[in-house]
Amino acid sequence: MLTNSQIIEKIVNSQVHQRVKSAIQPEKLQSILMQEMNSAIAKAFNERLESERDIALQRDQYQRVAGSVKRNGFKPFTIAGLFGRIKLQRPVVRSGTLVLPLAKALKSAGTALRDVLAIRFWLRGTSTRAVAEELNSVIGTRLSHSTVSTLTNTLEPVLREWETRPIPTGIKYLFLDAIYLPVRRPGFTSKQALLAALGVTEDGRRHILGFLLGDKESSDSWKALVKDLLARGMDRQQLNLVISDEHKGIESAVKDLLNVPHQLCVVHLLRNVRVKVAAPHRKAFIACFREIFWAEGRDEANRALGAMQGRWGAAYPGAVSLVTRRFEDHMVFQKEPKPFWTLLRSSNLIERFNLELRRRMNSAGTMHSELEVLKLIWAVSLPQEARWAKQLWKERNVREKDLALV
User: Quick one: pLDDT at residue 8?
Assistant: First the structure.
């Protein structure tokens, strides 16, 4: 049986334990660490500012020199830091102004830190409003979303240089596609077509080649994009194939300016076909479809096409007609080396990139200018090309992955 003193000691130890445990909760501990870090940084800076004051006045503290400028205490100011705003004390004098190099450097560094973090967070896919809110909360800045947008505008020289960069040599396969996004014009907002071009070399290196913002996917718009690619060095003599969905504007530009074979996207064809087949028969119909376009060779594909016509021609003439209507244009990929068939039979490569582009633009909302569009394109393209540079494209054996976007 415990004595009274042992009981009291046990109760006290328990209470102390609970208080210590409460005091070092993650959020409280983080707050304490941030405060202590800021306090240590502020103390070091304040000591250095006082030292610079004494050097400027050419006398130590409490030393009296006849006719010298007298100290007049301190004026508080703050700078942005990694752990919130840091409160500092700037020494002042009764007449005139002290030139303190550290004070000037600290203000510039705080602004520079804020600017760099704002641009970095924005490039990572955060909206301008979210960037401002997070930085204001974490490091104590006073940013607005419009200021973040202004900061990112400083990237314009880099963007313009990137926009007009030379096309990599050896582009064998050209992928073309477009997405629509809202762009604000004087007095109204309209959907604009963003035309995109990606390229793949013979050894499987993927490259983002160019973009063009236009009112719509017209033949003139696509020709303007292709002309830009040619002007920047794309060699039509080395180009083997263009891959896209079925679009008159693209087909016209390819025929008139490139004069190379044109592969129509098999996945787009499947999307159009499957809606014409009743749900109970859809799985079996798609299996026949795959037997055609994933055949090991042209003879096997022709036999599979005949089998589809015989089995489904009467039940779903519209679906079968879509498959046969431009069959040759959907089978051009088989004339290229077999390891590239998975890549070339569809426009999945550029569609996956456009999905990431759309995700980034959705968070940004309506585009206020073409420069805003270019900034976002650049922000998505740079990390994508870095990822592609680490690994060449390789053939995949799982054919279902080709249908991931269906």
Answer: 60
Q: What angle do CA 348, 352, 353 make, to 5 degrees?
A: 120
Question: Mean pLDDT over residues 324-331, rounded?
Answer: 94
* Residues forming a β-bridge with 75: 90
CA distance 406 to 403: 5
Highest mean pLDDT among 46-55, 138-147, 361-370: 46-55
What is the distance between the alpha carbons of residues 141 and 121, in angstroms, rounded to a whole number? 14
- DSSP string of 136-195? HHHT-----HHHHHHHHGGGHHHHHHHHTPPPPTTEEEEEEEEEEEEEEETTEEEEEEEE
The larger pLDDT score, comparing residue 361 to residue 115, is at 361
DSSP code per residue over 297-357: SHHHHHHHHHHHHHHHTTT-HHHHHHHHHTHHHHSGGGGS-GGGHHHHTSSHHHHHHHHHH
Taking only the tens place, the pLDDT of each residue in 159-190 is 889 889 999 999 999 999 998 887 776 666 67
Distance of CA 387 to the CA centre of its chain: 12
**Interhelix angle for 279-293 vs 266-274, to 10°?**
160
Tokens matching residue 268: 């787009």
Half-sphere exposure for 382 (CA within 13 Å, toward CB): 13
